[in-house]
Design goal:
Blueprint (H helix, E strand, L loop, with lengths): L8 E10 L2 E5 L5 E5 L20 E10 L4 E5 L24 H23 L1
Parallel strand pairs: 3-5
Antiparallel strand pairs: 1-2, 1-4, 2-3, 4-5
């Protein structure tokens, strides 16, 4: 089974940047190259204006070389730096406020002191 097919959008990490393109690690076997001509429809003077080493990006597969585990990639027709939005958890205030902490703190201290005593005795 071929893990990568032409036209598929894949996720990878930029591992290197040269004047002619950017290298992307896709998995433990496959590496890809985004040629400078596949970065933007416009003129690309400096690839570092678009990508940085360590960036996690999405890219479109243009061609797969199964024998050498190489993939030719493109980012010019897709949103390659999708932002993953993690909603923040809303903290609800209880009617007890800090009373719970005030109640639990001595219990937690006592439990940890007992654990420390066991460790010291060993």
């Amino acid at each position: 089974m071929i893990p990568y097919k032409k036209g598929k959008i894949v996720k990878g990490v930029v591992t290197g940047i040269e004047k002619y393109g950017a290298f992307v690690s896709l998995d433990e076997y496959y590496n890809g190259l985004i040629h400078i001509s596949e970065i933007s429809h416009g003129y690309v003077k400096n690839i570092n204006d678009y990508l940085k080493v360590g960036d996690t990006i999405y890219a479109e597969v243009l061609e797969v070389d199964e024998e050498n585990f190489h993939v030719k990639l493109s980012i010019k027709n897709i949103s390659y730096k999708r932002r993953t939005y993690t909603p923040k958890r809303i903290i609800k205030e209880t009617s007890l406020g800090f009373k719970t902490l005030e109640y639990k703190l001595p219990i937690w201290i006592e439990e940890n002191l007992k654990k420390q005593e066991k460790i010291i005795k060993k």
